[in-house]
Structure to design on (321 residues):
C-alpha cells in the first residue's frame, strides 16, 4: 500500500498538471502553528492568493491578523459572521442577488467553519509531513474531468456539488469538501480571478484528504478506459520514473475506441488502416488519425506505442525526480 508521499507522486504521474497539488491544514493551537515550517506574510494576504502561491511551490501559513479577505476570514473561522450576513443584507450590498431572500438563502447554505481557528497552513501537498485536511487541484477542465472520474470510480456519484460562482476557493473548494468529506468543483469567483490572475481556462477542485487516496486509485483504475495512447505513454514513463509502475497499460484501447487484434506490422506498433480500395491513407487502425511527431524528433506519423516512451519529454511538475 502506498504511503502518503507515494500517493502524491502517483497523482502527479496520473494527471497532466501545470500546478502543484495544494494541501490545506486547519490549526487550532498557537504552539503547533508556530512549529510549522512555512512563511507567514508580513502583511495581510488573501487566502486564495496563498493557494495560488502554494500551487507554484511556496509554503504559506495565515492567522486572523494576516488573513486579508473578510469573506474567507469569515468562512474559515477566523471571525464570526456578522448578523447582516445571515439576513442577506451583506450579499445584497455586493449586488450579487436579485433580492434579499435569495441572498439570505445562499448565506444560510454556505459552508462556514464554526470552530474558532488559530491558523491555516497552505503548501504543496508533498511538503506535508502530517495529513492535511483538504486537497486542492487547480487545473484545466480536461484534467478536472479525470479527477471527477477517479472519484466516481471509487466512491460513486457525487450528486451534491455546491457551486455559486462566489467564495470559490474558501467555501466551495475548502470548507464544503471538508465539512461533507467529499469532492467539490468550482469555476472560481470574480474576486479570486482578479486577485490571483488564474487562467481563464482553469477551474478548481477540492476534496477531503480522507478521499484523496481513493480518488488517485480511481484515476489509475480508469487509465485504460479513458486515456489515449500518448497520455498512457507519459503516465507509464512517470510511474516507472518513481518506481510506482504497477499498472498493465493497454495501448490502442479505450472504452470509446476499441481495436481488436492490433498488429505490429510496421515495427512501431501501428497497423496501417486500409482504405476501401485496399491501399493505405497514412492513418493508423488504432488511432485512426495522422499526427506528425516532428517536435519529438520521431519520424513516424503518431503516438501509439511504448517504444516512444524513452523519447517523450520529461515532466517534473510535482518536484519529484
Amino acid at each position: 500500500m502506498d504511503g502518503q508521499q507515494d500517493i502524491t507522486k502517483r497523482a502527479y504521474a496520473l494527471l497532466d498538471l501545470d500546478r502543484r497539488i495544494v494541501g490545506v491544514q486547519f490549526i487550532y493551537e498557537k504552539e503547533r502553528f508556530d512549529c510549522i515550517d512555512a512563511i507567514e506574510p508580513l502583511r495581510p494576504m488573501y487566502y486564495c492568493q496563498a493557494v495560488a502561491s502554494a500551487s507554484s511551490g511556496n509554503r504559506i501559513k495565515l492567522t486572523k491578523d494576516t488573513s486579508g479577505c473578510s469573506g474567507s476570514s469569515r468562512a474559515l473561522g477566523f471571525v464570526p459572521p456578522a448578523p447582516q450576513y445571515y439576513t442577506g443584507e451583506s450579499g445584497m450590498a455586493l449586488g450579487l442577488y436579485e433580492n434579499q431572500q435569495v441572498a439570505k438563502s445562499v448565506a444560510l447554505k454556505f459552508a462556514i467553519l464554526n470552530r474558532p481557528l488559530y491558523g491555516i497552513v497552505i503548501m504543496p501537498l508533498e511538503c506535508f509531513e502530517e495529513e492535511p485536511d483538504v486537497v486542492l487541484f487547480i487545473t484545466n477542465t480536461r484534467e478536472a474531468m479525470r479527477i471527477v472520474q477517479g472519484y466516481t470510480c471509487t466512491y460513486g456519484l457525487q450528486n451534491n456539488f455546491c457551486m455559486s460562482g462566489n467564495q470559490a476557493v474558501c467555501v466551495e473548494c475548502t470548507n464544503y469538501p471538508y465539512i461533507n468529506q467529499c469532492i467539490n468543483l468550482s469555476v472560481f469567483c470574480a474576486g479570486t480571478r482578479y486577485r490571483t490572475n488564474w487562467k481563464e481556462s482553469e477551474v478548481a477542485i477540492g476534496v477531503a484528504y480522507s478521499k484523496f487516496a481513493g480518488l488517485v486509485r480511481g484515476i489509475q483504475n480508469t487509465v485504460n478506459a479513458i486515456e489515449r495512447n500518448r497520455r498512457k505513454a507519459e503516465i507509464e514513463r512517470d510511474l516507472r520514473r518513481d518506481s510506482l509502475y504497477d499498472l498493465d497499460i493497454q495501448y490502442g484501447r479505450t472504452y470509446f475506441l476499441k481495436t481488436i487484434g492490433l498488429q505490429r506490422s510496421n515495427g512501431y506498433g501501428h497497423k496501417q488502416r486500409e482504405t476501401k480500395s485496399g491501399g493505405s491513407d497514412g492513418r493508423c487502425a488504432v488511432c485512426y488519425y495522422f499526427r506528425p511527431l516532428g517536435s519529438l524528433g520521431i519520424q513516424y506519423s503518431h503516438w501509439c506505442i511504448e517504444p516512444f516512451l524513452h523519447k517523450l519529454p520529461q515532466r517534473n511538475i510535482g518536484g519529484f525526480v
Observations:
- The first helix runs from residue 4 to 14.
- The longest strand covers residues 134-140.
